[in-house]
Amino acid sequence: MRRLVSVVLVVFFAFLMMSRFLESGFFVNELSSNYYIFNSYTEVGSKNIVTGIYLDYRLLDSIFEAGILLVSVAGVIFMSKKDENVKR
Question: Alpha-carbon torsion 79, 81, 82, 87, what sign?
């Protein structure tokens, strides 16, 4: 029962905070979107803005995300193979 009340409170406060952020326009950042729209072709040379952002501006983020995913998958595979060798 205590766990259920805790989960309900966390969900309620998360919903409350999210609604406050949406009302305040916190997630809307026109400065960065306008910057990408007007400068991506001259800085990156790509006609597709999404490709320019992904391959130039966010390249290091993407490389590190792929590395973290690789390490996570390797860890899961290692732990699952180790469990197969244990005799019950």
Answer: positive
Domain ranges of the chain: 59-88
Cα gap 86→84, rounded to integer Å: 6
Closest CA to 32 of 65, 58, 6: 58
Strand, helix or coil for residue 27: coil
> Rounded CA gap, 42 and 35, in Å?
11
Say how many residues make up the chain. 88
- Tell whether pTM > 0.70: no
Tokens representing 85 are 């060798």
Residues 37-63: pLDDT tens digits? 888 888 888 888 888 887 787 777 778
- Is residue 25 helix, strand or coil? coil
